[in-house]
Design brief:
Length: about 425
């Protein structure tokens, strides 16, 4: 089960259970009437009427009044922000972004405009553009809006920074907490950051704090389960996940975690659980990847490889998929095709020890001793030698007529094999008689 940790992270990000900066940076539509800056300029009756319509969620009425006003007052920062707010609420996101940008240009010191533009860009997954807008917002005076608005900018920054720079994300969150009290979302983010930093005790404490007040928090349940899995506390993780699934029996992330825990313990229940998940989410690539691996481990190579083939059609340059596919092809005795898969995988990811192992073996099976030796040398950077690799070293040197090196590795093999590989040991002994004659 060497790839389940990576696969689980992929699945949780796809399923939406893992925290997503695009979702958490701000709501899908504005929920507060725009606040005025301190000492604002006079506001026209038409803009005030538009804001009254906004307060009643009368978006069309507000838009009509603002469009009329902006036709003759195109640089009115407050009206531009209000118009952006209305477009945002109506999910006209490109229009909203343009209006927020015009509001920023008209009043570069408007915290609300920078914040709203940053939140909108984050919801569009444009984090590179969102971050500078939010960073500017944290430096501006919130005026009558109060510190909560600036704290919101810090929290949005924390969620954007979480994956790229957890240390910065922690600092962002601390700045937010200086301005407003801690929320359950803050606790969850702090737990995630501690988990990423390997501070498992702190992460567990935070997750359990959330669950103490909200026992059915799916995010906290998934986070704590992930922590237990990372620590390889499989029995405890299994007990916890079974209890959590009683409250949320259809939660795909918790089900995937339980299946992962069962697979890591080599329990037969893992396969039907993954198959059920796949039936419920046939288009979910992460579930398909996990099922493909479990099927391979269970010996159902044909069905496993059907899944790998489908996944590779969509992601032909995914090294993990290529390695899984290659391993299946070896079981099917399709060594030339397996060699091609491992060769491509190791070109894409030179740090994949499984890829180098597969390439060494298939190169040996297809009479490429020079490739076998190179692949074994690369594999040795990441994994210790085994009886099988000693045998591959020996036979590759033997094919190249390097008698001294071949004899050395045949001896290594015989010592490591200790009677567990009778056919190969017989071959090694016979070759040594000839090589050392």
């Amino acid at each position: 089960m060497h790839r389940f940790a990576i696969l689980f992270l992929i699945f949780t990000s796809v399923s939406g259970i893992a925290q997503n900066p695009a979702q958490e940076a701000g709501p899908q539509a504005p929920t507060e009437v725009p606040a005025a800056n301190s000492a604002p300029p006079p506001v026209s009756d038409q803009v005030q009427d538009a804001e009254a319509a906004i307060a009643k969620s009368d978006w069309k009425g507000a838009a009509a009044k603002l469009d009329s006003w902006l036709a003759t007052h195109p640089a009115d920062a407050r009206a531009l922000f209000d118009a952006g707010y209305v477009a945002d609420a109506e999910n006209r996101l490109d229009d909203a972004a343009g209006l927020y940008r015009r509001a920023v240009d008209a009043d570069p010191k408007s915290l609300e405009a920078h914040l709203s533009l940053g939140l909108l860009l984050a919801r569009q997954n444009n984090f590179d553009a969102a971050r500078p807008e939010l960073a500017i917002a944290t430096t501006l005076d919130p005026g009558q809006a109060g510190p909560a608005l600036k704290a919101r900018a810090w929290r949005a920054l924390a969620r954007i920074d979480r994956d790229n720079d957890p240390a910065d994300a922690s600092n962002d969150l601390l700045e937010a907490l200086k301005l407003t009290p801690e929320t359950s979302d803050d606790t969850l983010l702090a737990a995630t950051l501690a988990d990423q930093a390997g501070q498992y005790e702190a992460a567990e404490t935070a997750y359990r704090r959330i669950l103490a007040t909200d026992p059915k928090s799916a995010a906290a349940q998934a986070g704590l389960a992930h922590l237990l899995i990372a620590r390889k506390q499989y029995p405890e993780a299994e007990t916890f996940l079974r209890a959590a699934l009683k409250d949320s029996p259809d939660n795909p992330a918790l089900s995937a975690q339980l299946a992962t825990v069962l697979a890591d313990q080599n329990k037969a229940e893992a396969l039907p659980l993954f198959e059920k998940l796949h039936d419920a989410h046939p288009e979910n690539a992460a579930i398909s990847r996990m099922l493909a691996q479990v099927l391979a481990d269970a010996g159902d190579i044909a069905n496993s490889d059907r899944l790998y083939t489908g996944l590779l059609a969509a992601s032909p340059d995914d090294a993990d998929l290529l390695v899984g596919h290659g391993q299946n092809l070896v079981h099917l005795l399709k060594y030339a095709e397996a060699y091609a898969a491992f060769s491509k995988a190791t070109q894409l990811d030179q740090g994949d020890a499984d890829g180098w192992s597969g390439l060494a073996f298939t190169a040996s099976q297809t009479n490429r001793p020079e490739v076998t030796l190179h692949a074994l040398a690369m594999r040795a950077r990441y994994l210790p030698e085994t009886p099988s690799t000693y045998f591959l070293w020996a036979t590759a040197y033997d094919m190249q007529h390097d008698k001294k090196s071949a004899a050395t590795y045949y001896h290594y093999f015989l010592k490591a094999a200790a009677g567990k590989f009778p056919d190969q040991e017989a071959h090694a002994s016979q070759r040594l008689l000839l090589l050392e004659k």
